[in-house]
Amino acid sequence: MKRRVSVESASAFIDEKIKELGDWRGKMLAKVREIIHKADPEIVEEWKWVKPTSPGTPVFSHGGIVCTGETYKNAVKMTFAKGAALKDPSGLFNSSLDGNVRRAIDIHEGDKVDEAALKDLIRAAVALNLDGKSKPKSR
């Protein structure tokens, strides 16, 4: 059975992850999180994919998964669940470019985030999720 984490607990897990990192990755994850919420105040924070080999992943959703906020040794990665279907006029996507569904943004130490372009991308991802929810399923 899947373990569900309450929204309050998910936000607390993300707070703890940021604090635990204690370096540029924590600061960047906090900044990305802030941009996500500025772009869409209705974003819901979740904590998914907890396994014995993984502590879990911060997930930001509205009408479905918008993106994740993963941290690695050399990058903070924002993976957009339906990124391949999004227009990216600013060229933010720089990872997972060969996939049929997902696209990602790898942010490295010292990188500057184009906040306006990222907000646009987040809003487009939310709109895509909500548009998909309003269409009746074909039989």
Label this structure with key terms:
139 residues; 3-stranded antiparallel beta sheet; Aspartate Aminotransferase, domain 1; alpha+beta
- Strand order, biggest sheet? 1-2-3
Distance between the termini: 29 Å
What profile does the largest beta sheet have? 3 strands, antiparallel
By CATH, the topology is Aspartate Aminotransferase, domain 1
SSE string = HHEEEEEEH
Category by helix and strand content: alpha+beta
Mean pLDDT: 90
The number of helical runs is 3
- The CATH class assignment is Alpha Beta
Name the CATH architecture.
Alpha-Beta Complex
Strand content: 15-25%
Number of self-contained structural domains: 1
Low-confidence stretches: none
Rg measurement, Å: 15 Å
Tell me, briefly, the overall form. globular
What layout of secondary structure does this protein have?
Blueprint: H1 7-21, H2 24-39, E1 44-48, E2 57-61, E3 65-68, E4 70-71, E5 76-80, E6 103-107, H3 115-134
Antiparallel strand pairs: 1-2, 2-3, 4-5, 5-6
Tell me what you see in this structure:
This protein has 139 residues and is α+β, with helices and mostly antiparallel strands. The chain has a single domain (7-132), classed as Aspartate Aminotransferase, domain 1. It is built from three helices and six strands; from the N terminus they run ααββββββα. The strands form two sheets. The chain has a three-stranded antiparallel beta sheet with strand order 1-2-3. A hairpin with a 4-residue loop joins β4 (70-71) and β5 (76-80). α1 runs antiparallel to α2 (24-39) and α2 packs across α3. The longest helix is centred in the C-terminal third of the chain and has 20 residues, at 115-134. The mean pLDDT is 90.
